[in-house]
Amino acid sequence: MNVVVAVKQYVSRMIEESGPGMKVLLMDKETISIVSMVYAQSEILQKEVYLFEKIESASREYMKHLKCICFLRPTKDNVEQLSRELKDPKYGLYYIYFSNVISKADVKVLAEADEQEVVREMQEFYADFLAVGPHVFTFNIRTCYQGFTWEPSALSRIVCGVSGMLLAVKKCPMIRYQNSSEMAKRLAENIRQMINREAALFDFRRTDVPPILLIVDRRDDPITPLLNQWTYQAMVHEMLGIKKNLVNLAGVPGVDRDLHEVVLSSEHDEFYANNLYKNFGEIGTNIKELMEEFTRKSQSQQKVESIVEMKAFIENYPQFKKMSGTVSKHVTVVGELSRLVGAHNLMEVSEAEQELACQNDHSQSLQKIKKLFGSERLSDLDAVRLVMLYALRYERHSNNDIVGLEEMLRKKGTPEKLTKMVRAIQDFAGDSIRKGEMFENEDPIAITKKFFKGLQGVANIYTQHKPLLEATLDQLIKGKLREALYPYLGTNQLRERPQDIIVFMIGGVTYEEALSVHNMNKSCPGVRIVLGGSTVHNTSSFLDEVSSATPGGYRSRYHGPRTHRS
Amino acid sequence: MATRSLTEVFILMRNNAVQSRHIFSEQVSKQRQKSKSKSRKGVCVINDIIKAHSHDSLTSLADDRVALVSKDPEAGLTNSRINKLPPEWVDGVEEIQYEISRIQQKIKEVSTLHDKHLNRPTMDDSIDEEHAIEIMTQDITQMFTRCHRLVQQIGARSRSATSQEQRVTRNVMSSLASQLQSLSGNFRQSQSAYLKRLTGREERYFEHFDISLPQSSSMMLEDEELQERYDRGFTSQQMKFAEDNSVLVSQREQEIALVVKSIAEVNEIFKDLAQIVADQGTVLDRIDYNIEHASESVKEGLQQLQKADKYQKKNRKMMCILLLAVAVIVLLIILIWKKS
């Protein structure tokens, strides 16, 4: 169940099927992203694909000596454009692959358009999702709430995408959904319908333990996307924003022009792959090691005098060049991160956040927030973030001071639209909506657990928080997940412990959750979990989602980069 | 990795569509026949053939010809566009691919030879083997040079092509270059591994048969003795020996120079290739980035052209002004000269 490998296999197979010869890959906007998430251009060039085109682009020229591989989503627009293309074919032969189930009517339209009989192959290859990591996929849908129900286009895209993902990893799952969320239920039903409609496709070899598709809603855990992060990938996303594995560094002061946009992909960058789940301190030492190795190598590169050295140079030059790119990229990124941590006092802010999320000491937390508010370096977003966490945490506390904190925000000169978010998040995921025990304080077992934890002391105060998803999955693996909260769709129930689990979170996942799932995959042998979300959120994109869900909220113009605020 | 093939369904539907098109056109032709209208010009070719079958009078044939010619001028245009041969550089690509496959084969052969030479040393005719290895190595180096030249030719040939074709050739070049790069890397590595093992063997050889040192020292002693004895001048034999030596030395020098030159050449090629190969792991290696920026770069190019045009125009204006200024001065001087 590796989603990156699944997409890669699809792409390489569609290229192989057209045989030798020069090829052009014709894609639409979404499939371009799907392919570029897993393959670098140089890798595909090796497969004799020498041109990449968008089907929308009008200025394509006639090149009859190229074979055309079309990889498209089966949307109305694409079918229309493709039929126009087939009537006036620009390339020699056409191999058409749709990323999902296409209707017979659309096939007929294309068949009628193919007057010159240039189409050789037409298939459905179900790579209909963005593979962010081996166990994480997303659809880059920024807002899927409309009020508190589905936005129709997002729903249909996610139903297609999730069922495509199930086909890609060959799983026909039992579905469980979060009972408190109407949207989760609807998505579950739609996916079930899709599976029933395409029963022939989903007819895989039966495994002993059927896989499970668990559908949950972001509204049950609004805390995780509000926290500052300290692992590399999550941190970069929170502070700089990762968009389809690209990080925009244009706003960073004093950055080289070549580094305005950098790629952070675990597929093509070994250092990143080894470090994306490490915490900030470890990254510092690792990057120092990388630098040392690099300087050692570059010194040996500098003197090319004897023939032996020349030979060595030739052998190592490509790796050397690649390494120099990697080093400068990561040094820039980490440098910027540490600048932001210093500039915005993030250590203290994060400490307060973690305390709010994990401990239960009202007066101390309130004092801490008030103290932080006195600091000049506290950014607006961090201030609002703290108040939101406080509001979610102590909504029911008898003498809470949400109003007072809001007043302080206004006095501090925080933009009104940000201040409004405090109310919005309570509407979005307040105490009355959440069903899961996010703060686990009433349960006696939880209290004893916490007591023992308190005795042990915490290893790292900045990463105390564990996302709710981790607890849910833990219960699911142990077979203890309460049926009242997460019922099965249909009558079939799973008696054994599940092995293959696919979790989909409506309203977006976070990289912190990706990390949890990664750890669980590692620590539980025999259990494989894949995490999916409508998008991967950081705080600012999450606030956009919240505001689109709650009427009268704010919409920020930009998505993410903290640098703009400094 | 589930898939579903729709090819059969598609072909079935396509055939149906072709048939229905025929039937439709037949119906149209019949209708036309009934109405006896003479204007058959707009009807398609198949239609005309059917008509020719159904009624084979000379007049209708003549009409057919008219229809064929006057169908529409655009059809001929698209035909010519379709039938245009692929650009020249395509042959170059095939040639390089062939060459690369040959290089791969040769490298394999050489490495088996290496192994053979190292693992089963024969006492007598290992010189032949060494010679073969040498020749092969040279061959491979030459092939690399050739490939490199061909890659550059592709670039040169596509210079006059359209922007999109240039994009294709750039990608082709970069892909071929990276293939060559990795191949030559492999080749170098196998070479150096071979050399290392060879020297290692020699060292071991000297360890086991400890003959070289005493021999040479005794030789040296003898030499010294000889020198002491014939201190006053060279004998004719010695002269000859020295001459031979100097010839040998010069030969060796030449050989070394050759080797250095070839290595330098390869080094040059290597640097060149590295330039063509896109930077792996950077944004330039992202498919989406390249697609988005292809159109942008075209636009940018246009802007720059316009800017250049503007500059040139400005330049022209400047020239005018200067000319006029000079004229004014000259005329002024003439005026003053006339007056005085």
Automatic annotation (TrEMBL), chain A:
Q: Which Pfam families match?
A: Sec1 (PF00995)
Transmembrane residue ranges? none
* Record's protein name: Vacuolar protein sorting-associated protein 45-like
Please name the InterPro entries in this protein's record: Sec-1-like_dom1, Sec-1-like_dom3a, Sec1-like, Sec1-like_dom2, Sec1-like_sf
Q: Which organism is it from?
A: Priapulus caudatus
Family assignment from sequence similarity: Belongs to the STXBP/unc-18/SEC1 family.
UniProtKB/TrEMBL annotation, chain B:
Membrane topology label: Single-pass type IV membrane protein
Instruction: Output this protein's name.
Output: Syntaxin-16-like isoform X1
| Subcellular compartments | Golgi apparatus membrane
* Highest taxon listed in the record's lineage: Eukaryota
> Gene3D superfamilies, alphabetically?
1.20.58.70
Asked whether the UniProt record includes S-adenosyl-L-methionine among its keywords, one would answer no
- Recorded name of the encoding gene: LOC106817468
Q: Which InterPro entries match?
A: SNARE (IPR010989), Syntaxin (IPR045242), Syntaxin/epimorphin_CS (IPR006012), T_SNARE_dom (IPR000727)
- Describe the location of the T-SNARE coiled-coil homology domain by residue ranges: 246-308
Residues that span the membrane, as ranges: 319-337
